[in-house]
Amino acid sequence: MSLAPNPIDAPGTDEASWSTWLNALPYAGMAWLASAVIVAAHPDDEVLGVGGLISDLAAAGTRLRVIAVTDGEHSHRGLGDPADLARRRIRETSAALRALGAGTAEVIRLGLPDSGLGRHEGELTAELRRLVAGFDVCFAPWARDLHPDHEAAGRAANRTSQRVLWYPVWMWHWARPGDPRVPWDGAFQVPLSPRAVAGKRAAIGCFDSQTEDRGRALGPVLSPAMLAHFTRATEVLFR
Fold first, then answer.
1. 66 and 38 Cβ atoms separated by less than 8 Å
2. Could you write out the three-class secondary structure of 22-37?
3. Which of these, 117, 127, 122, 119, lies nearest to 149 by C-alpha position?
4. 129-180 per-position pLDDT tens digit
5. Cα–Cα distance measured from residue 103 to residue 95, given in angstroms and rounded to the nearest whole number
6. 18: which DSSP letter?
7. pLDDT surpasses 80 at 91
8. C-alpha distance from residue 224 to each of 60, 87, 186, 212 (Å)
């Protein structure tokens, strides 16, 4: 029996298809937040999903805690030493947070296995229950993003906080405007300051490991078409 193709590996939806359609989503600000936790399944998830919001919250003096669930050591599976890649991705994250003006944000690394979070979901849930307590909100990967690690991180976050806001990442690639698989009735967009938009672009540029050609006809992890979804003047969240 053949397996269904992974939608993440299929040709994606271009950003032009999203740009006009997204104008119909309501707006909401986040300036009221005094503290926020950002859960990232992999280094760069937090920047792609809510990097602009991180920048604006940092500028407002919001207490920020980034929980790095994995170190992303398997994004180049079969190419080089995973430990070297993990160290590189950790450095990239630090540079990206500085580019966002959030270099003083607290970063907690859990070191759980990349591409294997589903097998450690109970452990992750226990860790997040402790680390999310007392914060105004938890931003987490959408639990139906069709990436197994994103989904495991999102489910774990949902068990530990009643104040979870989801950020999609791969959804922009595999979904279509109005896609019935997406909970648009709970979606809203957060406007970003021009400074945050520029900072997010710079922060994305810090992740060379994900944007450079990996060789062996693999191309980059994040193609220019994929990155185009994350350079908007707003970010979209789900309640």
1. yes
2. HHHCCECCCCCCCEEE
3. 117
4. 999 999 999 999 999 999 999 999 999 999 998 899 999 999 999 999 999 9
5. 8
6. H
7. yes
8. 31, 24, 28, 10
53's tokens: 């919001």
pTM to 2 decimal places? 0.93
Structure tokens at 160: 């530990």
CA distance 42 to 24: 30
Is the separation of the CB atoms in 21 and 179 below 8 Å?
no
CATH of the domain spanning 27-72+82-238: 3.40.50.10320
Residues 6+ apart with CB under 8 A from 87: 71
**101: which 2 tokens?**
């003006």
Rounded CA gap, 1 and 10, in Å? 20
Runs of H (alpha helix) within 33-191: 45-59, 82-99, 121-132, 148-160, 171-174
- Residues written for the chain: 239
Please state whether 4 falls in left (phi above 0), alpha (psi between -120 and 50) or beta: beta
